[in-house]
Write a structure and sequence with these properties.
Layout lengths: L2 H7 L1 H42 L43 H5 L14 H20 L3 H23 L4 H17 L7 H26 L6 H14 L4 H22 L11 H27 L1
Length: about 300
């Protein structure tokens, strides 16, 4: 029996494999979440200085990674930001290394944020859920890419109020492609195209309506692209559910921050994490929500 046969005929093996893969990918997502926004900021600064004919060195003092001439997802190698000690492979095993090191750098003993193992654990858990729901299919591989991308977008938007085109746009095209070529795709190519268009245009319309009425920007363009991306993967039929779920959770969190933490009303609250979370819920349990809604209407 080959590995493929084993995975196809044993759901438990598939789920374990997905969880382990998710843990490893989660470790890489930590790199993406931290480095990609800094890479983009560095690129924007370089372009602005070139256009305005300014000395970039005068404007790079606030760059937390200015000491690195090359800063990409691959370079420099993982290291402690305080003592610059390299992170050895055995110190980078998802969750296990954090536990063995007791959440501290092996060299200088500086504390390591708990969010690193948490992101690894969440990525592993959600990967297992996708594998359990959709089985050993090509569609599952595509949906895992979607899930991992949503995790990265969630954390980047939470940190920087930014949804990078580097992630959302390829993800949108991948959703359209999946609807056309993958057996058992979630939606037809027609529904995927409509979902992408309606998803983008619906939030775009709300954005301009709010801006014309108040003179303020209620959301960023990245939110339009993210909802369009979710529409490309799950069709226009899921958009209303995604918007309702994301708005409900966003309103609850926003009100809670105002009441319990005294958050300034003028400080923006990123909407991307709620869209991403609602999209994942709709991916796994959208049909269940729709059936409940129909039962409520007919019962």
């Amino acid at each position: 029996m080959t590995v493929i046969d084993l995975v196809q005929h044993n759901p438990a093996v598939l789920i374990v494999l997905a969880v382990v893969t998710g843990l490893l990918v989660g470790s890489f997502l930590n790199v993406v979440i931290y480095r990609l926004p800094l890479m983009m900021q560095r690129e924007w600064r370089q372009q602005c200085c070139e256009f305005l004919e300014l000395d970039e060195k005068k404007f790079s003092k606030a760059d937390p990674v200015a000491r690195h001439k090359v800063f990409t997802l691959a370079k420099p190698d993982s290291h402690c930001p305080l003592c610059n000690a390299p992170v050895r492979p055995w110190q980078n095993v998802p969750i296990v290394s954090y536990a063995l090191l007791r959440g501290r750098c092996a060299s200088c003993k500086a504390p390591i944020s708990i969010r690193y193992p948490l992101i690894e654990a969440v990525t592993g858990l959600l990967s297992g859920l996708v594998a359990w729901q959709f089985g050993a299919t090509a569609l599952t591989l595509a949906l895992l890419v979607l899930t991992w991308s949503l995790i990265a977008l969630t954390m980047i938007d939470f940190d920087h109020q930014l949804l990078p085109d580097n992630i959302t746009l390829p993800l949108l095209w991948l959703g359209l492609l999946a609807s056309a070529v993958l057996p058992g795709a979630l939606v037809s190519p027609r529904d995927a195209v409509l979902g992408a268009a309606v998803g983008y245009m619906s939030l775009w319309s709300l954005y301009w309506a709010f801006k014309l009425l108040t003179g303020k920007e209620g959301m960023g363009y990245g939110d339009f692209k993210l909802l369009g991306t979710l529409g490309a993967w799950m069709g226009w039929q899921s958009l209303l559910l995604i918007v309702i779920l994301s708005s409900l959770v966003g309103a609850i969190v926003g009100i809670s921050l105002l009441v319990f933490r005294g958050r300034d009303r003028n400080i923006p609250i990123p909407f991307g994490p709620y869209l991403a979370g609602a999209g994942f819920i709709a991916l796994l349990w959208g049909d269940t929500f729709k059936q409940l809604y129909i039962q409520m209407l007919t019962g």
